[in-house]
């Protein structure tokens, strides 16, 4: 039907309005631009090309009319007071903004519906596209007719009212007639604006019609090609499997070729991979016209073979891909934070409005989201290439923080979190909160694909007035089983800006020094802090990989929110640079090679706390986990469900219970110390974690908590009798 193709129109409007700034300057004249459901403002029209002073999303905004040409727009706890020069202009802005809000919400609703629909065939798509344009053109004709009638009747109404005003001498009556006259003029202006916007929409739709059809045809051709290729591969695989069962001994050589093909495939060296494919013509035959199609078939073959080789018992569990949308509750951050300047944020009670529905233990677990980088590194023969992948892995842990300015829940003492991904990715992870003041967590990850990672992180956070600094203290350890290479590094400082005013944004800054304690290879990574005046790419990361002698072998570059690349150094030279004549090393490198690229965020991520696909599954209920697991935490569960008032009540209850438990332990400690007065230098143990113990690391000579074992065995027995009741 025609209604299925009706899209809301795109609103565009520009003009001057007065915006309230502060009590010193009062109202200031600003240039406002309404476009695509967003109301942006600038100091001057010339600023439109480079400097936007602020943007208001109208889809979630509340718009109301004040007194004397005033408009009030409220969004996300912030209010914007605007003033027009006249009442008709104010009414015009009000109707335009309200219509833009309706259209923005309709467009979001329409996008959510169309994402779940199956794409039409080529003929159906062309027919529907042309039909949609015809429908729009027909509707536009109707609107044009209505607009002409409205214009005629509006003009006649104005003439009649003017004549009536001349005949009547009453002052009050004249004022009322003047107001009605202005409303009639405003009605005609609104109609003209509506018809112009509809005409613009039709022009855009017509100009993009050919592009849509071409893109759709290309995608359908690719889909058909993929289906045909998969069918051929499936037939060849079945015939090969049948032949091997009939004569397994005569296909030993072919089995060796298949194994070699897989090994070369995993090394990501395309040339070697294609040579291996040519050595095994009886294994698979693909007729490719271009190198692009050949690569496409190779990737398809890889997927199909992995599916056929997968036993039925190891099919992956389907995990959730969305959580309830975040409610739009407003809260004044500054009213709470103004009393916290210079204090440790871990000691300040906060409502859940500032949180995201994950604990710090779950955020720590997100470090292994790109575990495939370590899987690839475990297969590297070169320690320098391995170092490049480890460096990319260390950067990837920050990719999910770009939009996530909310605070994770502070774990309770003894709280744990497990992540079992043996089926999907070959690893399983366990975290435990080992200290509350200062807050510290221990983390251990064991992978069946050749590596083990562990870390003991203490969080130090300070509020500086305009920003919050979060400084993770501690070392991250990574060891590969086959080579024994042991890597150690630390984290950089995270800073949340615009605490007092403006939109919150996060930045990562500092240096990371990765050391391979086995070979003494090193990698220095620099996270450049954001600067308004810098010409560098925002969120830039650069680095260099050197061997034990200090010789540079690889240059690393990228951004911590998008990707990292490595370029192999083939030559270097010394050049003098600058006015001081200092020597500068210039490196000549090969073409950069992609090491890591960020996964795209799920659909509707902006309404789900900007969680990644992994983060969406972290709080998913699972059977058999420990009773101290973060999934069991009631305040966090209620917040995820959108019940924030109930979550705040539970959060206060848990924090009070934790304070009482801490006082009880302090009393026990004092009693133990009094009993030990006759035994000088006797150490009194205050608290012992359940699954981690304190040891001195042989590499760094630092004391840290490491996994003592026993968790997964207890889970297999379902024996949690030793776990404390913390929730």
Outline:
This protein is of the alpha+beta class and 727 residues long. Among the domains are: 12-108, Pleckstrin-homology domain (PH domain)/Phosphotyrosine-binding domain (PTB) (PH-domain like, Roll), CATH 2.30.29; 328-575 and 583-598, Porin (Beta Barrel).
Task: Describe, in plain words, how this protein is organized in 3D.
There is one protein chain. The chain has a seven-stranded antiparallel beta sheet, with helices on one face. It has a six-stranded antiparallel β-barrel with strand order 13-14-17-18-16-15. A two-stranded parallel sheet has the order 8-9. Helix 2 (about 120-165) runs antiparallel to helix 3 (about 170-245), helix 3 (about 170-245) packs across helix 6 (about 290-310) and helix 9 (about 370-380) runs antiparallel to helix 10. Among the domains are: about 10-110, Pleckstrin-homology domain (PH domain)/Phosphotyrosine-binding domain (PTB) (PH-domain like), CATH 2.30.29; about 330-575 and about 585-600, Porin (Beta Barrel). The chain is an alpha+beta fold. The model is unreliable at about 1-10, about 115-125 and about 250-315 (pLDDT under 50). The protein contains 15 helices and 26 strands. Strand 17 (about 495) and strand 18 form a beta hairpin. The chain is globular, with a radius of gyration of 32 Å.
């Amino acid at each position: 039907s025609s209604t299925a193709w009706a899209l809301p129109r795109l609103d565009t409007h520009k003009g001057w309005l007065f915006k309230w700034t502060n009590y010193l300057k009062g109202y200031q004249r600003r240039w406002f631009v309404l476009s695509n459901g967003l109301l942006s403002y600038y100091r001057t029209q010339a600023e439109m090309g480079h400097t936007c002073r602020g943007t208001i999303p109208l889809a979630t905004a509340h718009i109301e009319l004040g007194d004397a040409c005033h408009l009030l727009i409220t969004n996300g706890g912030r209010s914007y007071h605007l003033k027009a020069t006249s009442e008709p202009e104010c009414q015009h802005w009000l109707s335009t903004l309200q219509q833009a809000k309706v259209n923005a919400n309709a467009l979001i609703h329409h996008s959510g519906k169309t994402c779940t629909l199956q794409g039409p065939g080529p003929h159906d798509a062309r027919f529907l596209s042309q039909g949609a344009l015809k429908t729009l053109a027909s509707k536009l004709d109707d609107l044009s007719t209505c607009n002409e009638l409205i214009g005629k009747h509006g003009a006649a109404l104005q003439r009649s009212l003017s004549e009536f005003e001349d005949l009547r001498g009453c002052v009050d009556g004249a004022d009322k007639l003047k107001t009605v006259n202005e409303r009639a003029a405003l009605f005609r202006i609104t109609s003209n604006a509506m018809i112009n916007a509809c005409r613009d929409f039709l022009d855009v739709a017509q100009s993009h019609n050919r592009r849509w059809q071409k893109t759709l045809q290309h995608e359908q051709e690719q889909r058909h090609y993929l289906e045909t290729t998969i069918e051929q591969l499936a037939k060849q695989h079945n015939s090969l499997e049948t032949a091997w069962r009939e004569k397994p001994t005569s296909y030993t050589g072919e089995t060796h070729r298949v194994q070699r093909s897989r090994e070369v495939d995993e090394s990501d060296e395309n040339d070697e991979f294609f040579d291996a494919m040519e050595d095994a013509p009886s294994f698979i035959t693909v007729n490719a016209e271009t190198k692009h199609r050949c690569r496409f078939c190779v990737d398809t073959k890889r997927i199909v073979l992995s599916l056929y080789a997968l036993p039925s018992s190891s099919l992956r569990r389907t995990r959730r891909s969305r959580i309830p949308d975040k409610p739009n509750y407003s809260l004044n951050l500054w009213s709470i934070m103004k009393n916290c300047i210079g204090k440790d944020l871990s000691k300040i009670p906060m409502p859940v409005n500032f949180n995201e529905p994950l604990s710090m233990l779950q955020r720590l677990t997100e470090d292994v989201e790109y575990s495939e980088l370590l899987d690839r590194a475990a297969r590297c023969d070169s320690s320098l290439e391995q170092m490049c992948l480890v460096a990319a892995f260390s950067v990837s842990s920050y990719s999910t923080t770009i939009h996530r300015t909310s605070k994770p829940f502070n774990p309770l003492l003894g709280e744990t979190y497990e992540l079992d991904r043996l089926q999907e990715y070959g690893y399983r992870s366990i975290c435990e909160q080992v200290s509350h003041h200062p807050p510290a967590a221990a983390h251990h990850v064991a992978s069946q694909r050749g590596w083990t990672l562990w870390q003991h992180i203490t969080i130090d956070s300070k509020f500086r007035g305009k920003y919050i600094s979060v400084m993770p203290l501690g070392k991250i350890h990574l060891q590969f089983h086959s080579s024994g290479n042991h890597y150690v590094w630390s984290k950089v400082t995270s800073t949340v800006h615009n605490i007092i005013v403006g939109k919150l944004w996060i930045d990562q800054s500092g240096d990371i020094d990765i050391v391979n304690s086995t070979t003494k290879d090193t990698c220095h990574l620099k996270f450049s802090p954001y600067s308004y005046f810098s010409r560098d790419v925002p969120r830039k990361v650069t680095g260099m990989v050197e061997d034990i002698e200090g010789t540079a072998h690889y240059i690393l570059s990228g951004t911590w929110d998008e990707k990292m690349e490595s370029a192999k150094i083939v030559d270097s030279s010394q050049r003098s640079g600058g006015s001081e004549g200092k020597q500068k090393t210039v490196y000549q490198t090969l073409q950069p090679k992609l090491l890591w690229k960020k996964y795209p965020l799920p659909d509707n991520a902006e309404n789900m706390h900007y969680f990644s696909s992994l983060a969406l599954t972290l709080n998913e209920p699972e059977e058999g986990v420990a009773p101290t697991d973060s999934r069991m935490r009631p305040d966090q569960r209620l917040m995820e469900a959108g019940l924030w008032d109930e979550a705040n009540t539970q959060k206060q209850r848990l924090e009070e219970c934790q304070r009482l438990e801490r006082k009880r332990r302090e009393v026990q400690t004092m009693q133990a110390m009094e009993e030990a007065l006759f035994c000088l230098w006797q150490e009194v143990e205050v608290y012992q974690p359940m699954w981690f113990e304190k040891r001195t690391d042989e590499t760094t000579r630092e004391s840290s908590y490491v996994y003592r074992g026993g968790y997964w065995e207890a889970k297999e027995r379902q024996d949690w009798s030793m776990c404390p009741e913390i929730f």
